[in-house]
Amino acid sequence: YNMVSIGAHLAEHLRQNGISVIHDTTIHDYPSYTGSYNHSRETVKTLLAQYPSVKLVLDLHRDAAEYDDGSQMETAAVADGVDTAQLMLVVGSNGTGRDHPHWQENLALAAKLQAVLEKRWPGIVRPICLRSERFNQDLLPGALLVEVGAAGNTLEEALAAVSCLAWGIGQLAAGTS
Questions:
Q1: Is the pLDDT of residue 145 over 80?
Q2: In this structure, are residues 125 and 87 in contact, taking their beta carbons and an 8 Å threshold?
């Protein structure tokens, strides 16, 4: 109902933009978040071995931030008159000292995608979040973690946001940005 359906919506819109998609629906954080990135790393490595032509890997999340009173944060933007969640592009680095040869390329990709989206829908993207962890983005240039709104956003707002994300990715893929 939540992230899998948001991923399916993104995949559908990317396909409509002529982009081939592999939408993996493996749940990596159940029954515990502990080890979820190790589990997803194996999935990504398997998919990259099976499909070596992959150019972009997206790891979709919803921000779990809370307000001081314990209520769930929501993010807000408007795209073409429709209320949407904001997107946040999270880029891992080699800040922990672990090898990450692609972090600067991934940061450049995030900056290009953010610029394309912000030009069309100002406010749709929160500032890029550069983190010291790798988030499995060391596996290839072209890997991003995308926060699709926050836990306080509605599913409809998140779906609207990934429709915008798909458009932006389509623009980059077509070289029209």
A1: yes
A2: yes
